[in-house]
Structure formats: structure tokens, C-alpha cells
Amino acid sequence: MVKKIKKREEDKNQFIIETERLILRNIDLKDTETFLEYRNDPLVAKYQSWEPPLIREQVSDFINNLQTHKIGEPGKWNQIVWILKKNLVHIGDCALKVQEDTMQAELGFTLSRNYQGKGYAYEATRALINYAFEELGLHRIFSITDCKNTTAIKLLKSLGMRQEGHFIENIFFKGAWGDEFLYAILQKEWNYP
Ligand SMILES: CC(C)(COP(=O)(O)OP(=O)(O)OC[C@H]1O[C@@H](n2cnc3c(N)ncnc32)[C@H](O)[C@@H]1OP(=O)(O)O)[C@@H](O)C(=O)NCCC(=O)NCCS
């Protein structure tokens, strides 16, 4: 699939990336309901840090606290939502945290079950990684996933990320010890669109 990635507009707090089928922008309070809906899906939450049900106040506090974070600001998570261009529906999000003083960032991603299997997560994460290397000038991007999270692993591999770590029972997660993979890619390895 050929994907056009176009940066449309950016200032410090309001950042927008446009891809072939998606608009990526900072999360906003108006995203609360859709965010709640897909994050409360037990299958979507299965390998994620939260346990459904999340409640509205938790999510609106979470979003409120992110409003002052500038894209790429070291030490701060940015939550970027994915909006379908054709109907402006909010279908997923990714999180990016640039670490302090390292020029490296951690990436996370979540897509509503209704929209999985259509390449949207690939399109969105590819655009954000591209932005992070090209515009933020980062050196390395990494992502950590449960070893059983096959769709996430597939996505990370399709982005060209390399498995660099395999942690054994490094996390007590949802009632049991879990294993995690670390995937990463360097800026010099990135295949720019
Ligand atoms: C991880 C997650 C984002 C992956 O979503 P996804 O939709 O499978 O990922 P992609 O966007 O890469 O889509 C790939 C699939 O779309 C298909 N596809 C359909 N149209 C496509 C297109 N135009 N372009 C690319 N792929 C397309 C691919 O063939 C592939 O299908 P397959 O998995 O049956 O082979 C999703 O499973 C999810 O949100 N999981 C729950 C949250 C989670 O665990 N997050 C990770 C935490 S580390």
C-alpha cells in the first residue's frame, strides 16, 4: 500500500498530521466518549496497562492533564488521536514519550476493534514515527509489548522495528507474571516515505 504522509499544520500544542485516510491530532476533551468506548473493550485492553471499566471522570482528567504537553516535549507523554478523514470518526490513538536528554521516544498504540485489520494502525504509527524522526530529530524509537500480543508484534515488525529485548516475567500484569518484547528502530534505519 502506498501511503502519502503529509504534515499539515503544527504549532507547539496543536499539531496535525494528515495521511491518506487519517488525520492525527492531539487528544481533546471532545474525544472522551469514543476513547472510553474502545478502551473499555476487554479485548482492546487485554495487553494494556488499564483494566476496564474506565470511567468518564478518569478519562477527562487524563485528557485535561495532557493539554499542556507540547509534542515531543521531553519527559511528557503526548496522546495523538486518529480520525478517519471520510467521516471524522475517532478510531484510535497512539502515545509518544520523548525521554529526558536522550533523543529517544517510547511509542504505544490502540485501535478500536471495529477498525482493526484495515491497516489504520500501520498508517498512523508510520506517520508519527516519520514525524518524530524528521521533525523532532529523534535518534531512536522503541516500543514494549506483551509477548502474547501478536497483532502488536506484527505491527512493530511491519514498521521495520527490530526485536532487541525479550524480558522474562519482568512485569506483574493482570494477576500473573508476564514476558515482554522490546522493539526499536534508529533514525538512520528508517525508511522515509
Ligand atoms: C495492535 C493493533 C493496533 C494492531 O491493529 P491492526 O489493525 O491489526 O494493525 P495494522 O494497521 O497494521 O493492520 C494490519 C492488518 O490490516 C490488513 N489491511 C487491510 N487493509 C490494509 C491496508 N490498506 N494497508 C495495510 N494493511 C491492511 C492487513 O492485511 C493486516 O491484516 P492481518 O492482521 O489479518 O494480516 C490492534 O490490534 C490493537 O489496538 N490492539 C489492542 C491494543 C494493544 O494491544 N496495543 C498494543 C500495546 S503494545
From TrEMBL:
Keywords: Acyltransferase, Transferase. One of its GO terms (molecular function) is acyltransferase activity, transferring groups other than amino-acyl groups. Pfam families: Acetyltransf_3. The keyword Acyltransferase applies. The keyword Metal-binding does not apply. Its EC number is 2.3.-.-. PROSITE patterns: GNAT. Gene3D superfamilies: 3.40.630.30. Coiled coil: none annotated. It is an enzyme of class 2 (transferase). PANTHER family: GNAT FAMILY, PUTATIVE (AFU_ORTHOLOGUE AFUA_3G00765)-RELATED-RELATED, N-ACETYLTRANSFERASE DOMAIN-CONTAINING PROTEIN. This is GNAT family N-acetyltransferase. The lineage of its organism: Archaea, Promethearchaeati, Promethearchaeota, Promethearchaeia, Promethearchaeales.
